[in-house]
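Re: your question from the hallway

Yes, I did run it. Sequences:
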Amino acid sequence: MTPRSTLLMQSARPLYWMLLAAALWILLRGHNEPGGGFIGGLLAVAGSSLLAIILGIPAALRLQPLAPLPLAMVGVGLAVLSGLAGALHGLPFLTHLWTGIGLSTVMLFDLGVFFAVWGALTGYVYALVDAGETAP
Amino acid sequence: MSHANHSEAGGPTYLWLAAVPLSLFLLLVWGLSRHDLPWHVDTPWVPSLGLSLAFRIDGLGALMLALITGIGTWVFVYASGYLAHEPRRGQLFTVLILFMLAMIGAVTADNLLLLFLFWELTSITSFLLVGFNHEQAEARAASRQALLVTMGGGLAMLGGLVLLGQMAGTWTLSGIVAAGPTLANDPRLPYALVLVLLGAFTKSAQFPFHFWLPNAMSAPTPVSAYLHSATMVKLGIYLMARLDPAFNDLLFWEVMLIGSGTVTAVWAAVLALRERDLKRILARSTVSALGTMTLLIGLPSAGAGLAVVAFMFAHALYKAPLFMVAGNIDHATGTRNIGQLMGLRRAMPWTAAAAVLAGLSMAGLPLSFGFVAKDIIAVAKAESEIFTLVSYATVLVNAVAIAVAGVAAVRVFWGPLELPRNQVHEVSWRMLLPPLAIVFLGMEFEFFPALADPLLLAAARSIAPGLGEVSLSAAYDLEALLSATGITALIGLLFFLAWDRMHEALHTLNRFDRYGPAALYDRLLHGLARIAAWHTRHLQHGRVSGYLQLTLAALLSMGMFGWLHTNSRLELTWDWPDHAWAWAVACLLLVAGAAAAATLRTRIAVLMASGLVGYGSAVLFLFAGAPDLALTQFAVETVLVVVAASVLPHYGTAPLQQEPLRASSGVLAAAAGIGVFLLLVHLSNLPVNGELAEWFGRTSLAEARGRNVVNVIIVDFRALDTLGEIAVVAFSLLAALPLLAGLRKGRVP
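Structure:
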């Protein structure tokens, strides 16, 4: 273990939450302004990577809703699910539906993209960070 | 050491699974008694591909179904006894059931693509069954061989079936058979038939693909009895018989089938004499029998159709029991080498009885259905004018069949016992009942032909529609007996007595083995591995500069090719973009980053410099009207640099090695740079079709309720693409995890 800066250790968690909040904000506003699931997911990956590098992988895993692979799979599952809603109404698969108050299956789909990116890329990042720390 | 001394492995025996084929068999019998053939169903599946769930059961299909489920029932009973000590028997039974369902699908499918699907499923399940003892290298090689040969043939067959389907304008087998005569003048017909026959020949182990079947004997014996004698290897025969009414009149078809069938029958009979392993002897004789069936299908007479089905039926009824007998001997003595097996009669009386009765049928002697079949075959051959050579060949083939029957049924059971008496004992009832039951069934059909007659005649009529009323009972006058069996039986007896001497004599053939198809298969497989190794050494050498050079050279040559094949001239026009100063700053970042990455030698500095290139392009995107792209680029670049920077120091901090400067690399780099520049200039001058962009811009808010067109395209208009992309991303992690785990353990450098 290399010595770590106290400043960095203390600021890691606040930074993570800020990045995650930004990620969610980017995700939600994506439909009308620059943003969306991909970019939001990448920001979340940035947050998780920061935690993994500074506080270690277990700390990063604790603040993630699911482990990387399940998270990625849930993401793909959500996207498929969002497409089934339209299919149940007799429309082609992935035809999106809106409710009156602005909620829609588009949002579910974008959330799926977000989770898939977040899960899959953190899976790679954790493995690389882990390999780096155990490297000779 | 004898297996029966082991205590039975715990767990279920799976004897009850025999109820699956049995109930299917009873269902078939019930259906046959209630409804007239043929039965068919047709449910559309993918109409645009011509794929539908079309099934059709006619006489031939019903006969195959009867064999699959009837023999299958007894094979399952036998397997429950044979595998009593096998801890992994659950797996074997699972695959066996899957195989049976695939077979049922293959012989009932009327749609060509559906037939192919089930056909390959039988190949895959056969692969799993042959390789069941996967800790033996021999079993692995045999299963791979069976898979490659039969699947390769299956692929050829797919091509042939597609051609046939296109020519006939129908995707059903019955439609092709109906359209048969009209196809005769189509120039594509020979190609289609060769391809289809490749599939049939590989599946039914016809020369030159005969070598995989004896090797497949490394499968457990119930599998050999079921797949490699009674059912799967008859699939090729089935297909040829199925198509025969359409192409029977073609000389091409006749020559292919009679030629290949005769060569296979004779050559496999000769090779049978070379074997010492009882199962391999039986396998060779199976190949020989399959050759005879191919030959019979090729004969133009209507009686040949009857001969094929009768022989197929008889063969299944005697070969499956003989395999079970070989399995029992193996189980009781631990060897299948006929040199060590003698006088087992007293120790294994019931097995001996089954062997003798099955042997009678194989030799075509009275008291067996084989006798009836032999009679019909003789009539069929007499009806058709066949070459004298072919009839001599059949005498030889039948004589060897008699000799093989003698070896399997007489030689190993009579004479003095070679092994210590206390080592040999009879096997359990579950391994005795099936062979006995099947041979008794065979005898029953000989005495009460009315039981099998309707089915066999119906099957024969689906091959030879012109077949009249015939009786399937054998003539029992002495003259007929002598003419049908006389001379052949005599030669067979001689072969049997001289078996060991002929075996020695045939050893001289060994020197030709390295020119045979089996050796060719080995050479092809080794060649493939060598090419793969060579190509990996030269393309996957691990030097990044080498990869880059190759990529750039390929890019350049493609660009040159495109340049030379268009007559558009390069036009240089220059418009200052808006925010030109920002573009300039971004370009400066890019150039500075690239130059620094190329010259710096400290790892972390090179990483930062390459990050600069990424940020530079993000700035470009931002001012080129692609804010989403810019955001993504910023995020990716940041994560990449941060993660790499945290990991990099662990791999050492020594400065990077200076690669020697080479003029050739410099020229390549310069050419690539200039080439890409010219390409971009050229592209920016090409007219852009803005129709799609305009449409997306117009409908984004109106139909998809979003103002960010890029995002709307991603999540709505092209959502299926995005779904595919995130699935790839997620599943790439699944694939990468094992590799990354290796990285962690330090196994991968």
